[in-house]
Amino acid sequence: MPSMFVRGNILSVLNADAHSVSNKGLHSGDTLRVSARKKGGWLRVRCSRTGEVFSIRSGRHLCLKSQATRPASQIDLLTRENQIVTAEQRAKVDDATIKSLTAAIKYAHSECNATRGVVEHLQERIAYYQNLQLEWHDSHDQMARQQLRLEQQLQQLRADSCHADMAYHARVSELEGQLEKFLRADEDDSPVEEDDLCDDGCQDSRGDYEALSNKLRMQADDPLALGRIGLHTWP
């Protein structure tokens, strides 16, 4: 069968007891460099250990050096065993770390859920206080509008009171003028002495007029005295 190796390949001897290599003085693990290919699957090679050049038939006893596996020594076995033990210990540590992280994640989820509940409660409280603030602002605006209306009403009442007071004083002055005219006319018609009495035993009506004049002057000073002095009862 044709050889699968080409010129320049570096081969490794897998089995030095094979029929085609047992008489070449080779050992398992020797390195051979292919210098030429021949018919029938034969290769011309150079042994790196001895430097000899000879022909060898290709087969399963040869392989590329990159694919060759060196027999494991005791040191290699101990090293591998140590690596396995170390890997197992690391795996245990990793498992414990994973369990710890899983528990921490569960705790973080529970804390997150609790925090979410607190946040929702705070949001509800904030919305409640915002509604209270809006209601307070509405009440404040309503009170401000009511205060403005009351101030306007108070100004109107003050203006009405001023006009009423002026009209009242004008009316009192008018009544006093009429009373003085009436008294002068009465004095001109029937003059009498201050201590004269009427036929029926009553005093002169001049005293009544003077009392009425005094009442009107009191009324000018105190507008609320109209009912107290009995002005509406004067005939």
User: On the 0-100 scale, what is the average pLDDT?
Assistant: 79
What helical percentage do the residues reach? 55-70%
The best one-word shape is rod-shaped
Q: How many helices?
A: 3
End-to-end C-alpha gap: 164 Å
How do the helices and strands follow one another from N- to C-terminus? EEEEEHHH
| Number of domain modules | 3
Structural class: alpha+beta
Assess the beta-strand content as a share of residues: 5-15%
**What low-confidence regions span 5 or more consecutive residues with pLDDT below 50?**
192-205, 226-235
Give a count of the beta strands, DSSP E runs of length 2 or more.
5
List keywords for this structure.
SH3 type barrels; alpha+beta; 3 domains; 11% strand; 235 residues; disordered C terminus; 5-stranded antiparallel sheet; 3 helices; 5 strands; single chain
Walk me through the structure.
- It is a single chain.
- The chain is of the alpha+beta class.
- The chain folds into 3 domains: 10-67, SH3 Domains (SH3 type barrels), CATH 2.30.30; 72-155; 156-233, no CATH class.
- Helices cover 58% and strands 11% of the residues.
- The protein has helices at 74-189, 205-221, 226-229; strands at residues 10-13, 31-37, 42-47, 53-57, 62-64.
- It has a 5-stranded antiparallel beta sheet with strand order 4-3-2-1-5, with no helix packed on it.
- The N and C termini lie far apart (164 Å).
- The model is unreliable at 192-205 and 226-235 (pLDDT under 50).
